[in-house]
# Entry
Amino acid sequence: MTTPVRRSAIPPVRLMSLSLLFVSAAALGYLSGFPDGLGLLVAIAAVLLAAVLRVSSDHDLAAYAPVPALAGIAVEAAAAPVGFGTELLAGFAGLCFLAWLADDPARPVGGDLRALPTIMLPALALGIAWSSALFLPAGAVPLGVAGGLLALTLAAVAFLVGSPSVFDREEARS
# Structure
């Protein structure tokens, strides 16, 4: 007789995407404008609370797991001083949040890799925004160039939304 395999009610922790989110949020918290390292504590608490909620056995509670992580990143980004490095780090923390969000333990392994084509769209927008802020001088002409780049990005998004088979590689659940 074989004994039935018991599955744990707690979903597994996906360490790669969680560590990316943790490191990027902690770095943003360190660079934020909060005194006495409070930004770092906000980042650590937000990501740990999100991780605990995500592995919760209560599915209704696990659905709210992204809220603390997103709120922590938003509070840190709002308090961070304006600068090229902090803006890039805030954008990278947002991309890490999207990768962590895609790597849901309730879904098959590799969700972050399957979501890579979808995450590339915000990454492209981040690259365009950061490079236009870095390389284009202030004025009316660079604003037109940045607007043209944004229009090109929106056209690419419209194309991908019009044909989701290009970036949606996950099979339907049966």
